[in-house]
Write a structure and sequence with these properties.
- With 138 residues, the protein is an alpha+beta fold.
- It contains three helices and eight strands.
- It has helices at 22-32, 57-70, 88-97; strands at residues 2-10, 17-20, 37-43, 48-53, 100-106, 109-110, 117-122, 129-137.
- The longest helix is centred in the middle third of the chain and has 14 residues, at 57-70.
- The protein is elongated, with a radius of gyration of 16 Å.
């Protein structure tokens, strides 16, 4: 069995962004040389997420509206966590969207459904954060 590990770094210009990282993750798979196995992709920060969904702008707007309805950024005073930081909402949004995805690797390709794409979700941006890609297989 082979293993491969790579860190991807992101620094968003906005507090919240969704970035399609499917191509970048596929390049990691190609670089690994692994043809059959499993790929784990996870956010290494507690205010960011990695998830799978459709790459459609209306849906992205729906995510923003839905998440903001569940855990609004402001007023900052509504959260007990906010003191030295003002990112309690980002922690909650990450919990809802999830930490990681696991994707099957089949014949050297990501085994995704027809509309599935991998996204990095940033909920407290404007600073460098990383995502881990770990692949195991043959």
């Amino acid at each position: 069995m082979k293993t491969f590990r790579k860190e991807l770094w992101f620094e968003t210009r906005q507090r919240r962004e969704l970035i399609n990282i499917t191509g970048t993750v596929a390049n990691c798979l190609k670089e690994s040389g692994i043809r059959e196995g499993l790929l784990l992709c996870n956010a290494m920060h507690i205010t960011a997420s990695v998830f799978i969904n459709d790459d459609e702008s209306g849906l992205h707007g729906d995510f923003e509206e839905w998440l903001e309805g569940l855990a609004p950024e402001k007023p900052y005073s509504r959260y007990r966590h906010n003191g030295a930081e003002d990112n309690a909402d980002a922690h909650l949004k990450r919990t809802i969207m999830g930490r990681e995805v696991v994707v099957a690797v089949t014949q050297g390709a990501l085994d995704l459904g027809p509309w599935e794409q991998i996204f990095y979700g940033e909920f407290d941006g404007k600073r460098r954060k990383r995502v881990l890609v770990k692949i195991i297989g043959e």
